[in-house]
Design brief:
The structure is a homodimer. Chain A is mainly α. Chain A has a domain of about 140 residues: Tetracycline Repressor, domain 2, CATH 1.10.357. Helices cover about 70% and strands about 0% of the residues of chain A. In chain A, α1 packs across α2. The longest helix of chain A is centred in the C-terminal third of the chain and has 33 residues. The interface between A and B is large, with 41 and 41 residues. Chain A binds a DNA duplex through α2. Chains A, B: This is HTH-type transcriptional repressor FabR. Chains A, B: It comes from Candidatus Dechloromonas phosphorivorans. Chains A, B: Pfam families: TetR_N (PF00440). Chains A, B: One of its GO terms (molecular function) is DNA binding.
DNA sequence: TGTACATCAGTGAACGCGCGTTCACTGATGTAC
DNA sequence: TGTACATCAGTGAACGCGCGTTCACTGATGTAC
């Protein structure tokens, strides 16, 4: 788990064994929670949690922004992995969308700290910060768009502007997800159910609009 | 405009004339912008902008949280007013939804600082902070839900779960609106158009699902 | 195998800064007699 | 109308704090000869 090599653990007292970027990232993650967002973390706080002197932080990251972007990228990759797995598990009975939404909700309930980052930090922080979140979100939209196209081809249902539909679904799910985090456990399920319904609504909408569009061009 | 009574302006030098809550709110608004959110403002900063000593702030607000909540409430009321006006202007030709969306977009483009607050601060800040934003959003959902019901009755179109539909539209428009703020002028129109289409998609979806539901209960 | 040396991740101390908050104050305003 | 007094929004100075960042350092590790 820890990346501290055991063979090097004999160091002079008062001196920490070598610490890696990953250890600092782990420390930052430990500090995050429902009431702490990445943008409120201080360098000293993270260093303290990691068990290093504040200035040692600079050996691994230029500044907190760089750490934050690293966290955001990790969070995006992690969630894409999870959603990707869910996509694979989708069958003809269980739609891709349903499967992915379920996976997302499950992760949400698991209180995954990486997920918190993606959900919360989209609108605050430095420009680099916002851009990193936007980038991850656009990856999701891209992949979801492909799913929708495949899905429509498979079912023979229409599809109006897959990219736009994917964007609407992604953004809506992420905002709603963010509000779930603040809710007490017992209300989370309720909101999760709402999110699923909202996604269905959007998909029904894109199909209907596609049908109308097709009729008009007849 | 200013609430400083002119008749009382003769005060001893080095002493500010009486200042009101509104003056402090105005100072806070002045400091906000695309890269400054309410939650990053400091008490001293606001006091400086208002031209008072830091400790004078306490004569008007318990702390920054109280100011923030006041700002959020103002922002919500202001936008509801604007949307309410748009609702009145809606005709049979221009739908309520179109009219309201247009009004929202116009306000967005006008770079209204109160609107910034509502769009940005939903996911960060103290609990009181988040609760205040949630409350304002729920007001919108409520009113929009009523609109949707009236609209459906008027047009005879179906409507599946008006409250849920209103929530989806509100949340989606607000998140998308938040991303608009960071965009350069020339890309804002594009995104604004996307938002309108997304709303149409949701409305089409709720109508379709209502139709399906009605068919099933036949 | 031993020695000299470069590298580099760690260190403690210190810096100046802006912050929220407190204190005892002051003096203009409004009220009671 | 004048005087005494309470009120209260303003004040400057000071506090202790955590912050980001810098500095010159140290000593373990790996490499060259």
């Amino acid at each position: 788990m820890s990346s501290i090599p055991a063979k090097k653990s004999l160091v002079s007292p008062g001196r920490k064994p070598m610490i890696s970027r990953e250890d600092i990232i782990a420390a930052a993650l430990k500090l995050l929670g429902p009431s702490r967002s990445v943008s409120t973390l201080s360098l000293r706080e993270v260093a303290r949690e990691a068990g290093i002197a504040p200035n040692s932080f600079y050996r691994h990251f230029r500044d907190m922004d760089e750490l934050a972007v690293a966290l955001i990228d990790m969070a995006g990759e992690s969630l894409r992995q999870i959603i990707g797995d869910a996509r694979q598990r989708a069958t003809l009975e269980v739609s891709v969308v349903q499967s992915c939404t379920d996976a997302f909700m499950e992760q949400l309930r698991a209180d995954d700290r990486l997920l918190h980052i993606l959900l919360r930090e989209g609108t605050v922080g430095s420009d680099a910060f916002k851009r990193a979140v936007e980038r991850q979100l656009s990856f999701f939209e891209e992949e979801l768009g492909q799913d929708l196209i495949r899905l429509a081809a498979l079912k023979g249902s229409g599809l109006c502007q897959p990219a736009l539909t994917a964007k609407a679904i992604t953004r809506l799910v992420f905002t709603m997800g963010a509000t779930v985090l603040d809710l007490p456990r017992d209300k989370q399920d309720e909101l999760a159910a709402q999110i699923v319904k909202m996604v269905r609504m959007i998909i029904a909408g894109t199909q209907t609009l596609a049908a109308i569009g097709a009729k008009k061009t007849d």
